[in-house]
Every structure is written in C-alpha cells, then in structure tokens.
Amino acid sequence: MSVLIVGAGPVGLVLALSLRQRGIPYRLTDKAAERLPWSRALGIQARSLEMLDRLGLAQRILEEALPIHGACLHLGRRVVRARFRGMHPRFPSMVILPQARTEAILEAAGPPPERGVAFEGLREGRAVLRHADGREELAEAEWIVGCDGAHSAVRHALGDPFRGKRYDARLVLTDAHVEGLEPGFLHVAVSPPLLGFGLPGGLWRLVTTVPEGAPPPPENDMAPFRRRGIAPHDPVWWSAFGISQRQVASMRKGRVVLAGDAAHVHSPAGGQGMNIGMQDAWSLASALAAGPDAVEAAVEAWALQRHAVARRVLRATDRTTRAMLTAPGFLAPLRGALLALAFRTPPLVRRFEAETAGLRYPPIPD
Question: Pfam families per the record (predicted)?
Fold first, then answer.
C-alpha cells in the first residue's frame, strides 16, 4: 500500500498524519514553495477537535485558539446574546485559530511535505509530477488523493464536472482592530449583514457583503464594516472575493480520490469548509487501513458517506448564505425581530450550537 497526497493544506496534512499513525506509506506534495501566510478559514469545530485529539494535537490547538462561548446579535443599539451550553463533553463547541497556524501545527507534527512539486496529470495510471527545477517525474502509488483545493489539478485530470453555482454578490473581509465587540462571541448584524470573529492576538475578522452589481469598495476601506457601536480601524489584511458552492458527482474514480475543497466547495458561512475537509481526510485514512481484501469496498463506502455529508453541508450553508446576501429592505425590522426571538429560544440555540460544533454530522471513525 502506498498513497500519493497532492496538496499540503489542512486536508492533506491531516491525511498524511492519519496514514502515518496507521503505518501506511505516503508521499505528501504541494506545488507551493512555502506555506501561504494568509487565512480564510478560522473555526475548528468540536467534531474536528475529536479527530485532532486522536492525532495528539487537540491540546496544542487549544493552547493557541480562542473558544467561542455563544453569539451576539446586533440590532442597532440593542445586543441580544445567545450563550452556548457546552454540548461536547470535552471540547468547546468551536474555537478560532487562523488556518495558517493550524497548518503550522499540523506540519510540525510529521515529516515536511515535498514543496515545489506540481501535479500535472495522469499517464498510464501514474501521476505526472513537475519539480521546481523542471524535472518531470512519473510517480507510482496505489492510491492518489487530491487534497489540492477548489482549483484541484487532480480533479481536472479526471475530467469530472464540478457542478454548482456562483453567487451574484461578493464578500469583503478584513482582519483589523475593532472597538465595541465582546471577545469570545460570534457577532452578527442584520442590515447590512456583518459577521465578526475575534482572533488570537486581539485582531478581529469582519465579513460583509457587496451588493450584486456594485463595485467592491477601495482596498482597506473600513466604511463597509462600520455599524452602530462597532468601530473597526487599522486593518492588517483586506480582501474582496466571489463565493461559490460546488460538488463533484463522485469522490473517487478507480484509485484516484478527491477530498476537501477538491471535492466540494462551500460558502464560508458557518465555518464548515476546513472542518469537513479534515474529517474527509481522517475517515479516508481509516478506509485505506481496511486491509488488501477490504480496502476497495471501504473506500467506496467512504466516498458515498462523505459525499452525502458534503451535500447536507452544502444545503445548510446555501440557506445561510442566501439569507445573508438577500437585502432585507423594508423587511429588515421583521428579520431582526425573528432572529432576536431565535436567540432567546433555547431549543433553537441548542440546534445552532450543535451545527456550530459539527455534532449534527456522523461521529469520527476510529
């Protein structure tokens, strides 16, 4: 058994560590010469912390991450709080840690990836790799796993369509200093929509929308993020980008497998993308460890189950995204009132916490 992992982000790194723990040989490659410094993904769910604990890394993550204790709804001068009750017996429902730090912790736990090695295609069942010096390599592996993101070269080599949609509106985000937000809570404003997350070190991640057809604001402009009582300033990162949701028809074709964003991309609403990808990787390692007589059936069962989980996540994040992107207009007070009621209704708060923690999806396999 040998596995070639293409892509050394969180998904590829978790797969590598999980295979190593099970004694399965692998190669981990990435086309980038060095790890990327910026971080779109932030949230790590309790379900993912279960998996990271089995790799011996949960405590290391918790030493740096900020736990989330609930959510605050901002309605002009009013702030409505919904406190989490702690649904997981051992871990916070969600913690916040920039993806770059998560990757650094994962990478330090195992052998370094082979960087500057690009996957260029498949030839007679082997992977065509291009090294930084221009050298071509035909790499043999019993299994090839594409963990190389939304623009996956492995998926393109398979020729599989990546069906879905692109939302008309765009998102703008910033990491900045902010006055007026309570640490340890997710912050939500309705009109215009705004999401806020505290980061380790004192910065905040703010996310808002650019209406359909409107030009993006000037870079580092803080005006789109200002709300009553929320005062951002001195940004250290600013980005505007479109969002899509897409999914492959199948997560495997023969002995070539797709995991994480290579197989399914989600709106960032809900903080699901990195989590579901890392969980893809852990459970795939379990399937690959099934033994020579059972591995084909185990990987096929994995592909069906993880495809179904991703489809559920896509539906949930699509509902959240459409609600965020739809301009409420004169209905804004009604939307705010309904959300305030939800924030005060314990069963709905528990449901939101379970979704935030990833506990509405299947347990992590051994």
Answer: FAD_binding_3 (PF01494)
CB 177, CB 204: distance < 8 Å: yes
Q: 256 Cβ partners below 8 Å, 6+ apart?
A: 122, 143, 144, 145, 146, 154, 157, 158
E strands along 184-255, which residues? Answer: 185-189, 194-198, 204-210, 231-247, 252-253
CB 187 within 8 A of CB 74: yes
Pairing of strands 163-179, 231-247: antiparallel
DSSP 269: T
CA-angle at 141, arms to 138 and 144, nearest 5° = 100
What letter would DSSP give residue 124? T
Question: pLDDT tens track of the chain, all 366 residues?
Answer: 899 999 999 999 999 999 999 999 999 999 999 987 777 789 999 999 999 999 999 999 999 999 999 999 998 889 999 999 989 999 999 999 999 999 999 999 999 999 999 999 999 889 999 999 999 999 999 999 999 999 999 999 999 899 999 888 788 999 999 999 999 999 999 878 899 999 999 999 999 988 777 788 898 999 999 998 999 999 999 998 888 999 999 999 999 999 999 999 988 766 678 999 999 999 999 999 999 999 999 999 999 999 999 999 998 888 877 777 665 565 667 778 888 999 999 999 999 999 899 887 777 777
Helices (H) and strands (E) in the chain, counts: 9, 20
* Distance separating alpha carbons of residues 158 and 147, to the nearest angstrom: 14
Q: Using the structure block, give the residue that is written with the tokens 């990833």.
A: 358
Q: What are the tokens at 222?
A: 């803080």
User: Please, what are the domains in the chain?
Assistant: 3-164+245-357 (3.50.50.60)
